[in-house]
Specification:
alpha+beta, five-stranded antiparallel sheet, disordered C terminus
Length: 693
């Protein structure tokens, strides 16, 4: 097979450009170059190719960075079988007429594609196979320097195809498009084509000195080596060809697999094109064929020897006694052509925009007719009060959202349960869903729906997510947070007790509810979408559109996952602590239970607990191991050195007395106050703990 060869090489620095210039101009020593043969200068880039390249960039007014590709070297050649069809192995030989024809077509292609961007071009005839080196400055049509646009992977594939097409008349072909054969750059290819020793033969050493004189020994070795070379060359050449054939076969196997996948994709595209062709309005085809509607009967079209009646997607030709269905059948009948030619006729004759316009007009008319009988007003899903406890259990136990947040919303009717019945072949199925109502200042606009079992989530019928949303928190805070769901809104609010107003956008979006109004008011805004690819993309688009907006990302997948992780860790710690207390409960702990009618959450083991009849103002005292605590009834005082232990015992006594831990008055050193606050936080429920913090 005779193939075209096209390679490119990036030239990014002054040294690489000058190196390419010296090599191409033969101003430096070149291995395997025959000095007796002359090369041809087609376009002279001058003695300093780098300066020529930079002048061309400057002339175009193009900007360049320190790492820009300043020039691209294009290498063009063909298989040795083309230049020397008699014996491709004779390196350096070529047919003069074939070479000239190849050069002419190659230069036509080069100028058609790069024109005045070529700054240096030379034909080399002094090496193994004729080839052309061209240095191109990668300037775009609007004079930007962009090698990526001119020599990207996709563009290079196009260049390979167009170059082969240019040389097709010479019997040259492109390598298989989409081939998995490894690409060889110019440097490696150059080394390969100039290699004269395609294989290495053993050499016979001169015989020992005792046999012959030195000159005779050398002549003997030369003669024997020549004889061996003549005998073994065909064998080694076959072995080399076999190795190459094996490698090419593997490349073809990979290519065949890839082309099979491409065929499947093209087949799919063809099927889509066929479907589009079938959807072409029949009236449009009749009009393009020269038929006109019958003034007496709008369903009939006449002309060109036809009288055709249309009925939706079907037709019948009364004059020719032929009927069918669909656009392709109609074209086959009118044009008397094959299926393939019918699709081609539709593609060439029917403007897709015109067909789409006709289809759209029909669709708009149909929608208009249907919409007269359809009510698009949002109607909230029916409430099912019998499932309210199931809803509360779902929010508290499965979603771990504190009832302090959800109960008021349930009482207001903004969150409620609804029952959904679905009929199928197996009978009726019932599902219970949570409803989160969306609203704006004018009233209800929709509802988010979340299944209490399974993963179902969505919007209620006729919901308008662009003009309303589910929200929770303090709107007076002037800090708006956007999250992706109602569950995330509740979770975010629990994790962030500071004043904020959390809005669910019911999915990631860059245009959430009343964003422009908030922007005009100067409120603080935060995008807190999910920790996934979609969340990232929309958050970044959000900030591009509104640079003043902040981004906050959950640590896990979403805000409810964050909340559940916090709650599960807390509950595990609390359970573990209770087990420890129960395991090491001491005699002193039992005295505390008897005195205060309550269990202590911190062991008193090793301490002395009692009362002093001589001092009725002291209900009890606890002493030992750095603890010196007195219960005065309305006050608890501590004098020991172990502040944290004393604080924990004092809080346990306060709880046993029924004191409100949020109303405690703490007096003493900063260290003592911090110890008491820590002890209080450890005894409270998670929601209260966050509020206290």
């Amino acid at each position: 097979m005779k193939f075209t060869i096209l390679r490119t090489q990036k030239l990014k620095t002054q040294s690489t450009i000058r190196g390419a210039g010296k090599h191409n101009a033969r101003t430096q020593k070149t291995l395997n170059a025959d000095l007796e043969k002359d090369n041809e200068i087609i376009i002279d880039g001058g003695p300093d190719l780098h300066a020529t390249v930079m002048n061309r960039i400057k002339k175009a007014g193009a900007k360049h960075r320190s790492n820009s590709v300043l020039a691209q070297e294009v290498f063009m050649s063909a298989s040795p079988e083309f230049f020397r069809p008699g014996d491709p192995t004779q390196a350096g030989e070529y047919d003069q007429n074939l070479m000239q024809a190849w050069k002419k077509e190659s230069m036509c292609w080069l100028k058609d594609n790069f024109d005045d961007r070529i700054v240096d071009c030379r034909l080399h005839l002094d090496e193994s196979t004729p080839h052309i080196h061209a240095v191109v400055v990668p300037l775009t049509a609007d004079n930007r320097l962009s090698a990526f646009e001119l020599f990207s992977r996709k563009t290079l594939s196009f260049l390979q195809t167009s170059y082969a097409k240019q040389l097709k008349s010479l019997g040259l072909k492109r390598g298989i498009k989409g081939s998995k054969a490894k690409h060889i750059d110019i440097k490696q290819y150059y080394a390969d084509v100039n290699s004269k020793d395609l294989f290495k033969l053993p050499r016979v050493k001169p015989p020992p000195g005792a046999m012959l004189l030195k000159k005779q020994r050398e002549e003997y070795a030369t003669k024997l080596n020549k004889s061996l070379l003549e005998q073994l060359t065909p064998t080694f050449r076959k072995a080399t060809d076999a190795r190459k054939a094996k490698k090419i076969a593997k490349d073809y196997q990979r290519t065949a697999k890839d082309l099979s996948e491409q065929y499947d994709a093209i087949k799919h595209e063809l099927e889509e094109a066929t479907d589009k062709a079938r959807s072409t309005p029949l009236e449009l085809i009749l009009e393009k064929t020269g038929l006109e509607p019958d003034p007496k009967d709008k369903k009939q079209w006449i002309g060109a020897g036809h009288r055709i009646t249309l009925s939706e997607s079907k037709f019948y030709d009364h004059k020719n006694n032929y009927g069918g269905g669909g656009a392709i059948d109609l074209v086959k009948h009118l044009q008397n052509c094959s299926f393939k030619n019918a699709i081609a006729w539709l593609g060439q004759t029917i403007d897709p925009k015109e067909a789409a316009k006709s289809i759209r007009a029909d669709a708009e008319q149909l929608v208009k007719e249907l919409s007269q009988n359809i009510d698009l007003t949002f109607c909230p899903p029916k409430s099912s009060p019998q499932y309210v406890q199931k809803l509360k259990k779902y929010l508290k136990n499965e979603r771990m959202i504190d009832p302090i947040i959800t109960d008021p919303l349930i009482a207001e009717g903004r969150i409620y349960a609804t029952e959904k019945n679905i009929e199928n072949n197996n009978g009726s199925m019932s599902f219970v869903n949570a409803v989160f109502l969306c609203s704006n200042s004018n009233g209800l606009t929709g509802a988010e729906i979340k299944g209490l079992s399974g993963n179902y989530s969505g919007m209620s019928k006729n919901s308008d997510r662009k003009n309303g949303a589910f929200s929770v928190g303090d709107v007076e805070s002037k800090h708006i947070v956007f999250v992706e769901s109602a569950i995330d809104a509740l979770s975010y609010k629990q994790l962030h007790p500071e004043p904020c107003f959390v809005i669910s956008t019911a999915g990631a979006t860059t245009t959430p509810f009343f964003i422009e109004i908030l922007k005009g008011l100067g409120w603080r805004m935060t995008v807190a979408y999910d920790n996934d690819e979609i969340g990232y993309q929309f958050a970044l688009k959000f900030v591009e559109k509104y640079p003043e907006i902040e981004i906050e990302i959950p640590r896990t997948k979403d805000w409810n996952s964050d909340l559940k992780e916090v709650e599960e860790n807390y509950r595990a710690w609390k359970t573990k602590k209770k087990k420890v207390v129960g395991r090491i409960q001491s005699f002193q702990d039992k005295l505390f239970n008897k005195k205060y009618d309550a269990e202590i959450n911190n062991t008193l083991n090793g301490l002395f607990i009692g009362t002093n009849p001589a001092d009725p103002a002291v209900n009890a005292f606890i002493f030992g191991n750095g603890v010196d605590l007195l219960d005065h009834g309305a006050m608890i005082s501590c004098y020991g050195s172990d502040l944290q232990h004393q604080a924990e015992i004092a809080i346990n006594i306060a709880q046993a007395k029924g004191w409100d831990l949020f109303q405690l008055e703490i007096d003493g050193s900063v260290e003592w106050i911090n110890a008491v606050k820590t002890a209080v936080a450890e005894q409270l429920e998670p929601g209260n703990y966050l509020e206290l913090r």
